[in-house]
Amino acid sequence: MRKIEEITQGVKSAKENITKQEKALREAITPLKQFGKNYSEFVLKPEEALEKLLQEKSGQVAGAAFRDDLGGIDFVWGKDGKDGYGLAHILEKRASN
């Protein structure tokens, strides 16, 4: 019975930690206007965020992913070309290789 209590407490602790991280990330998210429309419905949903940006070919998802060592990670469509950035730039580079 003690093992079950330990496991239950561990699960509760992990859930509380995740909830705290999610709250901190949601509070820290500040979309940048220069990156266009922010698709906030995809916060902490990195795969869905990538799919949305690939579909729209514009905009951003502020806080699309999270890592303990980095914090919130934003995904932006960006632009291609020599001075490009974001997913557009990555896709252009991959296509040319």
TrEMBL record:
Pfam families: PBECR1
Naturally occurring in which organism (per UniProt): Helicobacter pylori NQ4076
InterPro entries recorded: PBECR1
Superkingdom, taxonomy of origin: Bacteria
Residue span, Phage-Barnase-EndoU-ColicinE5/D-RelE-like nuclease domain: 65-95
UniProt name for this protein: Phage-Barnase-EndoU-ColicinE5/D-RelE-like nuclease domain-containing protein
